[in-house]
Structure formats: C-alpha cells, structure tokens
Design goal:
Layout: E1 2-4, H1 21-40, H2 46-53, H3 57-85, H4 87-106, H5 111-128, H6 130-139, H7 142-173, H8 182-185, H9 187-201, E2 212-214, H10 215-238, H11 242-264, H12 280-308, H13 313-333, H14 342-364, H15 371-397, H16 405-434, H17 439-468
Helix pairs in contact: 1-7, 1-9, 3-4, 3-5, 3-10, 3-16, 4-5, 4-6, 4-9, 6-7, 6-16, 7-13, 7-15, 10-11, 10-16, 12-13, 12-15, 12-16, 12-17, 13-15, 14-15, 14-17, 16-17
C-alpha cells in the first residue's frame, strides 16, 4: 500500500540558500540542540514535578521516557517524510509541534497532561531532527560537508551534557516562582525563532515526482520500534515484569517482518540497500556501540555522583562539563588535523575512549570523587570521543549519493537514538543492580563493561577506516 506525492520541478534550487548556508546550518543545529536538550533536562526537575503535581512514581517514569517513546514512533519515517513533502516543511512542522508541546508541558495542570505533551514533544523531534542530516547532505559537499557534519556531532555531544546543567540552573533559579516549569517554557521563544528563520533559510528539498510513502512498512515500523523501546525505558523501574520480555520479543518479530516487507516493495520506507554503500554498515555498527557506551556512561556516572556521592544535579552536571566541552571542541575541529590522519581518528578515538572509561572506573572504585585521575579521564574521553565521533559521521556518509541521503540519514538518526536508549537501559540496569551493594563497586564494574564495548566498536571502526581509504 503506497501514497504518491507530487513535487515541484526544482525543489532545491528555488530556495537554495547559496549565500547563507552557514547561517542556515546554525538555525538547524539550534533546533536540534533544543530537541536533544529535552532528553536530559527534565531529569533534574523530577522531585519538583512529583511535589507540585502529586505524581506517582510510574507517572514520573512516563514523563521521562514518554519523550523517547514519542521520538521513536516517527524516527524511522522522519527522513522519508521530509523527502516526500519537503525538508523545510517537515522541519518547521516538527519545530512548531515541539514548541507548542513545550508550552503545554510548562502549563500542565496534572501528570496526565504532562505525559501526553511529552510524547507529542518527542514526535515533533522525530519530524525535525532527521531533516538536519538530509539538508547537510544536499547543501554541502567536500570539505564544507565535513565541517557541517563536525558541527552536527559537536552539537549532539554538548547538548547531552548541557541538559543537566541547564536544568539545574533553571530549577534552582525558580524564575517568577514557577519552579520546574521554565525547564519546558524556555523552549518556546527559541522554537518560534527557529521556525521563523527556517522558513526563510532552509530549502524545501522535496522528492522527485513519483516517490511514494510505504504505508505497509510504516504500519510495521512504528509498533516495532515502540514495542522495543517501551520496555527498555520502563523495564528497569518496573522490575522487568513479564510484559516487558513479551514486548521485546514481539518487537523483534515485527522488525524481522519489516525487513522482509521492505525487500519486496518497490519504493521502501527504508532502503536497506544503502547498507551496501561503502562504509555505511561498519559506520552504523561503530556508531551503535559508541553511543550505547556513551549513553550508559552519562547516565551511570551522573547517578553515581548524585545518589552515591550526594552531589546535587547541578554539581553533577558541572562535574561532567569539562569532558563535554572537550568533546564538542574536538568534534568540531577534527578536520583541521592533517588529512592523512583522518581515517585513523575513529579507531584511535574509540581505543582512547575505552582507556578513559577504564580509568574512570578505577578512579571511582574506592568511593571517593576520583580526584585528578577522574578529571584526566574525563578530558581523555572528551578528546578521544570528540575526534572519533566527528570523523565517524563524515566517513559513514562520505560515499552516500544525494538521491539516497534521506535513507542514510534515517538509518543514522535511528541508530543514534536507539543506541543511546539501549545503552541507558543496559548499563543503567547493571549499575542499579550492583548499587544494592555499593555505588563505587557498581560504577567501577559498569565502566569496565563500557570499555569492553568500546573495544568492540574499535573493531568496527577499523573496518570503516579501511573503507574510507
């Protein structure tokens, strides 16, 4: 079952921002930063939300995880919808949906309203963020594309770390006596600005006439992703009841069915043939392992600093900030290094990150704050992962032709977000199980396994490096 759309004769050329491409990129990345920030910024407001709205523990879980579930529902389809109906249109629609739901979150009178608004917020992000990679692929080439992708990866790294810091500042400031609500309301003026500028700067990017939306694939993909993500984000807090394993099994079966269907339709929702393009498959495998370890690292270390060592959310965020800053800087400027070194940055950076994770575990295993070794390990992590992650994205997409940019960006953003969810669920469950003993033992063991996972990712990175050469 398919739905055909029409497109203008020159979809990109009419709105191509040739004179201001970097200003356009800044607008796109500001929207992405805003959306990524909401993944972690709400964590520090949970205590205040519980008190103000009289929310139960289950409701708080859904406030945090609802965003991820809503995001996952439309993540795979976001890039293809942008290709069909115009990247500018989908980006602006996503921004406006996200902004409107942020306003609703900020004025939510009860937990149910807040949960529904959070799920819709995530759906808005899923429409918005895949368009960023697609526009970069379409509007930049050569060294300019490498710089644009570097800015993209730097934004991701800084946003994840900044969430806790900004959330702690806003909650602590208690602006106008609003308590936790500015955590969401701050998105409103930013979202309006991003939408207005995007309408002027971002090209439409509609597909050629005759492209179709694979409704059969869509009907399978959405429940498959939700059935996998929902137990991952709720299972740890609910004690892994029977329904979580049933849901995971059903999701895996639907994923297999999705692959079968996509191989048979003429214009699939996700063209799995893109995996045959040089560098894409090993690049996505390396990305999955890297973000899984990174998501687990951020979650577990922040939890150890707060629950284990008694730091406030703001103090924990500031403790993590040096690594995030170095990550962002290295992720943006990696292309300044001699070109002969570029192919080696991802495997070398992954190996360095494995060492950093191991040192983090060693520095915290005795129950203290880790001292100089802890901060040295954070800086080593930021340096290694920043160089690795920036070059990883560029090399994964370097051989993807323009006409397949939507398929590649859909797979990349899906891998990025699902990898993080799986990492938080897996490493978080391991940490919380071991923390029944001591938090220090739990964080040391967790970081050791994160280091092992990064070594596995190093193997994929080596394959990617060979493909890049």
């Amino acid at each position: 079952m398919t739905l055909t759309t029409e497109s203008p004769a020159n979809p990109d050329r009419a709105a191509r921002p040739g004179r201001r491409p970097w200003f356009m990129l800044a607008v796109l990345l500001l929207g992405q930063f805003m959306a990524l920030l909401d993944v972690t910024v709400v964590n520090v407001a949970m205590t205040d939300i519980r008190t103000d709205l009289h929310a139960s523990g289950a409701a708080l879980q859904l406030v945090v995880s609802g965003y991820t579930v809503g995001y996952a529902m439309l993540l795979i389809t976001g890039a293809r919808l942008g290709e069909l109906f115009g990247r500018r249109r989908l980006f602006v629609t996503g921004v406006l949906l996200f902004t409107g739901c942020s306003l609703l979150c900020g004025f939510a009178p009860d937990p149910t309203t807040l949960i529904v608004a959070r799920i819709a917020q995530g759906a808005g992000s899923a429409l918005m963020m895949p368009q960023v990679i697609s526009v970069i692929q379409a509007q930049f080439s050569g060294p300019a594309r490498a710089r644009a992708l570097s800015a993209y990866t730097a934004t991701i790294s800084v946003a994840f770390v900044s969430g806790q810091v900004l959330g702690g500042v806003l909650v602590g400031a208690d602006l106008f006596g609003a308590g936790w609500r500015p955590v969401f309301l701050v998105n409103v003026p930013i979202g309006v600005l991003v939408a207005a500028l995007a309408l002027r700067l971002v090209p439409g990017g509609a597909a050629k006439a005759g492209r179709r939306l694979d409704l059969a694939g869509l009907a399978i993909a959405v429940p498959a992703v939700v059935l996998v993500v929902l137990p991952l984000v709720l299972g740890r807090e609910t004690g892994w009841p029977g329904w979580t394993f049933g849901s995971l099994a059903a999701g895996v079966l639907l994923a297999v069915l999705f692959v079968v269907v996509e191989r048979r339709v003429r214009d699939p929702l996700v063209d799995l043939g893109v995996l045959k393009i040089r560098g894409v498959a090993p690049g996505l495998a390396a990305l999955a392992t890297g973000v899984a370890a990174y998501g687990g690292f951020l979650f577990c270390v922040a939890l150890h600093l707060q629950a284990g060592l008694g730091q406030t959310a703001l103090a924990a965020g500031l403790t993590m900030a040096p690594g995030g800053v170095v990550f962002g800087l290295c992720g943006f400027f990696w292309h300044k290094l001699p070109e002969r070194l570029h192919a080696a940055l991802t495997p070398g950076g992954y190996a360095g990150s494995a060492i950093a994770y191991a040192l983090l575990g060693i520095s915290l295993k005795d129950g203290g704050t880790g001292g100089a070794l802890f901060f040295a390990a954070l800086v080593l992590f930021g340096l290694s992962m920043g160089l690795a992650f920036g070059s990883l994205t560029a090399h994964t997409l370097s051989h993807v032709p323009l006409e397949r940019a939507a398929d590649a960006s859909g797979l990349l953003t899906t891998t990025l977000q699902l990898g993080q969810v799986i990492g938080v669920a897996t490493f978080g469950s391991l940490f919380l199980t071991l923390a029944a003993g001591t938090s220090a033992h739990a964080i040391a063991t967790t970081m050791t396994w994160a280091a092992v996972l990064m070594l596995v990712g190093t193997g994929f990175a080596v394959v990617l490096a060979r493909a890049s050469r």
